[in-house]
Design goal:
seven-stranded mixed beta sheet, 9 strands
Length: 199
């Protein structure tokens, strides 16, 4: 969806003057991630139990499906660890999950905004129903919405009930709804051309 310019295939719709540029208007800078070149697969946990080692390609790298070439990161929400594609600039946020049908080993896409945003996402051109979890500047869970693909000229806008700095899109029903007060923790960013590991 596209965050009303970002998520999945969404477009970013902001109430600020930067809305015309497809960007939302946040108020503080999110946390940076440390660099790493490790290719060791991580384990996926749900409800405090380790479920399995994440699948990898023969080269030891995760299969990124239709998102091959995107930077990835391992994130944790409560006890749930996820491998996600990273959308941390305006063009990536506008592209989001538009046209993505195959996620490979990825659990979804994490959108980072430069400041807290008051905006929404839409599903125009998105192929897969998605859940979207929003997190504030303090990385605390704010809201979850369920979104459906839209092929109409005008599509609904999905906006949370509070400002956010992070949004996580996952295929509908695949990731448990975070508990109230759940915190998003960031892992290492990996990908071609990543020098510092920062977003």
């Amino acid at each position: 969806m596209v965050a009303c310019s970002p998520p999945g295939a969404a477009t970013d719709i902001s109430t600020s003057s930067s809305a015309a540029a497809g960007m939302s208007t946040p108020t503080s800078q999110p946390t940076s991630l440390p660099a790493s070149t490790s290719t060791t697969p991580s384990t996926t946990t749900t409800d405090s139990t380790t479920t399995s080692e994440e699948p990898t390609t023969t080269a030891g790298q995760p299969d990124q499906g239709d998102l091959a070439g995107w930077e990835t990161a391992t994130i944790t929400i409560g006890t749930t660890e996820l491998l996600v594609a990273v959308a941390d600039d305006s063009s990536e946020r506008r592209q989001g999950l538009i046209g993505v049908d195959e996620f490979g080993d990825l659990d979804g896409m994490l959108f980072q905004f430069p400041k807290e945003a008051i905006s929404g996402f839409w599903m125009k051109g998105t192929l897969t129903p998605l859940d979207i979890d929003f997190f504030g500047d303090d990385m605390e869970f704010v809201d979850r919405l369920s979104m459906v693909p839209c092929s109409a000229e005008t599509c609904p806008i999905y906006a949370p009930n509070a400002p956010f700095s992070w949004a996580l899109e996952t295929p509908a029903g695949t990731v448990p709804t975070p508990a109230e007060g759940a915190i998003l923790s960031l892992g290492v960013v990996r990908g071609e051309g990543v020098v510092s590991g920062e977003w």
